[in-house]
């Protein structure tokens, strides 16, 4: 039993020793030592500049004098110069590029990309503090790495070489037998102390790096705004695809299904109905190809440094409403008022999509074109707002419902909200009513301020 405990203690001791050596001499410690040495090298120009002015004040014969006063005086004067020059915006991405592969810190904790430039006062001050710390500590480690190893090797060999002892002018007691044991140990201890000092300095920089080179609150806010803008753009594309392609596929599927059922019956006028259905399918498919090309063009937006996405979107507007109603497969009575040409293009495009989604709902839940009850559409253009109302009788039997509900009515609410308006949908006195009010003079609302939940979300069809 004692032997087993002794063996376990020995293994534990060996493991601890290996862990300590890895911490002092492992790959991470070596990379951090390289990072510190680079900081010392970057301080050298500042040190030389400071030595030119500090030399006369310290009484040195020249700026390359080896006096301690000159060395440390120039070092102390160089650090403020580093702090001032590190206020430049470009200093932060350069520091991040140097620290990322060498500090042993997860890359995501640093500022990256275009956001790396220090544009705010807080970011510049943090970068200045980092550069001062990195260069200052790095210079001390670099100096020690240059001076201490040769001195430690000299201490280790001086008891064994009289010529080296005479050349160094070492005291005579180093020739004693005890010195031949203690001197090598002292030299090894110096080297281990240097490694420990370097590892501790590297660990200090690794701990401080995310605080000084990581994102500031302004960076986090800007990143959140970029993510929100990207999400809003994705939602916008999803709405366009849903309303254009989704409507077309629903209409084509229902028209084709109705034509197939009619061909299987012997009712008079079958051929004429099928002909009209096929013509509607052809027209819908042809129109949707153009709309799909427009929507896919949004995916390439920005490759040529384009303008505001809200301003360069093209697509059908209220002027194309007659064609949409004629080939929708739904009997629609249209009531219009005002001048559609006075509606801004952005509002006109969104109004078209809202009507398109209303027609898709009528078709989808009626069961097919032949079964769809007449719908009433009202498009009224006023001085300040555009009011769209679509009503259709509720079907006697529930129509097919997709698992999880549809997304069209939520898209209608988002379109209206982005324009500063509102939309409502739901059963009203035996009819299904979809209404939207769109301001004509109010600019597009920022996507970051759009509601997270649609007011129509509870009535998705």
UniProtKB/TrEMBL annotation:
Q: Which UniProt keywords apply?
A: ATP-binding, Kinase, Membrane, Nucleotide-binding, Phosphoprotein, Transferase, Transmembrane, Transmembrane helix, Two-component regulatory system
State one Pfam family annotation: HisKA_3
SUPFAM superfamilies in the record: ATPase domain of HSP90 chaperone/DNA topoisomerase II/histidine kinase (SSF55874)
Q: Which GO molecular function annotations are given, in alphabetical order?
A: kinase activity
Q: What organism is listed for this UniProt entry?
A: Streptomyces chengmaiensis
Q: What is the protein named?
A: histidine kinase
- EC numbers for this chain: 2.7.13.3
- Show the taxonomic lineage: Bacteria, Bacillati, Actinomycetota, Actinomycetes, Kitasatosporales
**Out of the domains of life, which is the source?**
Bacteria
């Amino acid at each position: 039993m004692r032997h087993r405990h002794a063996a376990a203690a020995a293994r534990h001791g060996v493991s601890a020793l290996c862990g300590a050596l890895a911490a002092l001499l492992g790959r991470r410690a070596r990379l951090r030592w390289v990072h510190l040495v680079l900081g010392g090298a970057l301080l050298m120009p500042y040190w030389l500049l400071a030595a030119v002015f500090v030399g006369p004040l310290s009484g040195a014969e020249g700026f390359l004098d080896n006096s301690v006063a000159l060395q440390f005086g120039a070092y102390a004067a160089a650090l403020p110069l580093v702090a001032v020059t590190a206020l430049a915006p470009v200093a932060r991405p350069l520091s991040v590029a140097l620290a990322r592969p060498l500090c042993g810190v997860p890359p995501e904790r640093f500022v990256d990309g275009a956001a790396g430039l220090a544009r705010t006062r807080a970011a510049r001050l943090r970068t200045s503090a980092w550069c001062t710390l990195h260069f200052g500590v790095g210079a001390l480690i670099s100096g020690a790495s240059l001076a201490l190893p040769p001195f430690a090797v000299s201490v280790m060999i001086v008891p064994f070489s009289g010529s080296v002892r005479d050349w160094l002018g070492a005291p005579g007691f180093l020739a004693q037998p005890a010195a031949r044991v203690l001197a090598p140990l002292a030299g090894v201890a110096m080297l281990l102390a240097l490694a420990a000092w370097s590892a501790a300095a590297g660990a200090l920089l690794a701990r401080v790096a995310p605080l000084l080179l990581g994102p500031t609150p302004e960076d986090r806010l800007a990143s959140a705004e970029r993510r929100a803008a990207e999400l809003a753009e994705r939602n916008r594309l999803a709405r366009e695809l849903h309303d254009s392609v989704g409507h077309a596929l629903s209409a084509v599927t229902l028209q084709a299904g109705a034509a197939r059922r009619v061909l299987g019956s012997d009712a008079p006028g079958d051929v004429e109905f099928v002909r009209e259905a096929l013509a509607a399918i052809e027209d819908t498919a042809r129109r949707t190809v153009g709309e799909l090309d427009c929507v896919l063009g949004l995916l390439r937006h920005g490759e040529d440094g384009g303008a505001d996405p809200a301003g360069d979107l093209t697509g059908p507007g209220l002027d194309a409403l007659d064609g949409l109603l004629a080939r929708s497969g739904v009997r629609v009575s249209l009531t219009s008022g005002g001048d559609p040409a006075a509606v801004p293009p952005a509002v006109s495009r969104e109004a078209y999509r809202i009507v398109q989604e209303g027609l898709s709902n009528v078709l989808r839940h009626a069961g097919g074109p032949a079964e769809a009850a007449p719908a009433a559409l009202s498009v009224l253009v006023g001085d300040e707002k555009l009011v769209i109302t679509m009503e259709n009788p509720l079907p006697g039997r529930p129509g097919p419902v997709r698992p999880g509900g549809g997304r069209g009515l939520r898209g209608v609410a988002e379109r209206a909200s982005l324009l500063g308006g509102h939309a409502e949908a739901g059963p009203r006195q035996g009819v299904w009513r979809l209404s939207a009010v769109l301001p004509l003079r109010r600019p597009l609302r920022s996507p970051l301020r759009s509601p997270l939940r649609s007011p129509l979300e509870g009535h998705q069809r």
